Amino acid sequence: MNMEKIDTTGIIASDRFVLRPLRRSDQGLIEMYASDERVARMTTTIPHPLPPGATEQFIAASLTDERDEDVWVMDGAAQGSAEVLGLIGLKPMDRNQSEIGYWVAPAFWNTGLASDAVRAMVEANPQGVDTMFGSVFQDNPGSARVLTNCGFEYLGDAEAFSVARQAKVDTWTYLKKMK
Description:
The chain is α+β, with helices and mostly antiparallel strands. The chain has a domain at 12-128: Aminopeptidase, CATH 3.40.630. Helix content is 23%, strand content 31%. The protein contains 5 helices and 8 strands; from the N terminus they run E-E-H-H-H-E-E-E-H-E-H-E-E. The protein has helices at 27-34, 37-40, 54-62, 113-124, 141-149, and strands spanning 12-13, 18-21, 70-75, 86-93, 97-104, 131-137, 153-162, 167-177. An 8-stranded mixed beta sheet has the order 1-2-3-4-5-6-8-7, covered by helices on one side. A hairpin with a 4-residue loop joins strand 7 (153-162) and strand 8. Helix 1 crosses helix 3. The longest helix is centred in the middle third of the chain and has 12 residues, at 113-124. The protein is globular, with a radius of gyration of 16 Å. The relative contact order is 0.16.
């Protein structure tokens, strides 16, 4: 039996789940959720339809030392829930800042999981940044509430390209001063 080594240094605890580093064994559930058009359309990077091998490539890239984003799984297994509830990530930016991004599987929408995950990430501040930014599509007010519920302040409007929509989409941008 080939046991995968699990990095426990990046685990962030919450009452309802843990945020833990990705594992190759997460591929099936991530692929199932990310291939849902409702999830893909609310992100900038997930294509729809999801091409074969995209999830495997995403996980492999996330596990390299050269990655451009740190990604955690919302894992509820220890609390009797699903092993993969969604993902949350931090992309380092210049001037000691990060951009936060997240998605939750549709089966767990409207349960407060995204707010709990963002709150846990903000409290842990694993990259030790001074400021976190977040952007959400303007047709996703629930995700905007997640950020404001976690202390992010509205910064302004912008736009971002959505791979799933193959179009630029209006966004709201938020920031949270950490120090």
